[in-house]
Amino acid sequence: MSHLVIVESPAKAKTIEKYLGSAYKVLACYGHVRDLPSDSMGVNLTTFQPEYKVITDKKKLITELKKEAKKVECVWLATDPDREGEAIAWHVQEALGKTGVPFKRIVFNEITKSAVLSAIKEPREINHNLVNAQQARRILDRVVGYEMSPILWKKLKRGLSAGRVQSVAV
User: Fold this and answer.
1) What is the pLDDT of residues 16-28, one digit of tens each?
2) I need a labelling partner for 85 at 20 to 30 A (CA). Which of 1, 29, 111, 130 fits?
3) Predicted model pTM
């Protein structure tokens, strides 16, 4: 039996691979693999539906992860347990597309053998509430920033930026 585990950090990957043994290959996605495009709003302003794209410098990595995913019986998404990590897990799964193998989500709060092995015994689905929370934050940052920043540039100073937190605070 062979498995692919995807984590965010290459340092974590090496340690976790030692804990899991030869039936598991652990690779890093190096954080976010998809984002809103940098050359446009990337959000439909009627439906607020985001238009994600694979980040340019992650295209080769996604190709490699797809290739590896086709060789295994299961892909384990082991990104961080917070909303960003949950969104990264979802984005990885979406970017890999239909691989023909199941995806399982695992989380652990420490990189210890017992925590990792315990997580493998208790996989779960991606928590879409956490993913939606991260998406809402990202969409609000984009919509507010893209609409407010040009106003700041005209009225105050070029190079200033606005986001959902800064704008309300100011």
Assistant:
1) 999 999 999 999 9
2) 1
3) 0.88
